[in-house]
Amino acid sequence: MVIAKRTSKNQLTLPKAVVEQVGAADYYDVICDNGRIVLTPLHPGGAEAVRRRLAELGISEADVAEAVSWARQP
User: Fold this and answer.
1) DSSP labels for 3-18?
2) Which of 4, 6, 12, 52 is 20 to 30 A from 71, comparing alpha carbons?
3) pLDDT for 15-54, tens place per residue?
């Protein structure tokens, strides 16, 4: 168990051990789940990295739309 203390300004410092497990992120998705606070690291540039990789592979938006349409068929 790792403990983090809330400051008077409602701020938390994430313990180093926790950050090392999930990787550092500047932004976190925050939800309340049955009395628990759940933080999920966000990587805002991730979508752009995916777009670059798809372009490198020659996969167009139309290709992706076609694949999604195919996958959603009953």
Assistant:
1) -----TTS--PPPHHH
2) 52
3) 998 889 888 888 889 999 999 999 998 877 778 888 888 9
Q: What single-letter amino acid sits at 64?
A: V
How far is 7 from 11, CA to CA, in rounded Å?
Answer: 5
Beta pairing partners, 10 = none
**Minimal CA–CA distance to 24: which of 32, 34, 10, 14?**
14
Token pair listed for 72: 């959603």
CB 4 within 8 A of CB 14: yes
Can you tell me the distance from the alpha carbon of 36 to that of 28, in angstroms, rounded to the nearest whole number?
15
Residue type at 5 in one-letter notation: K
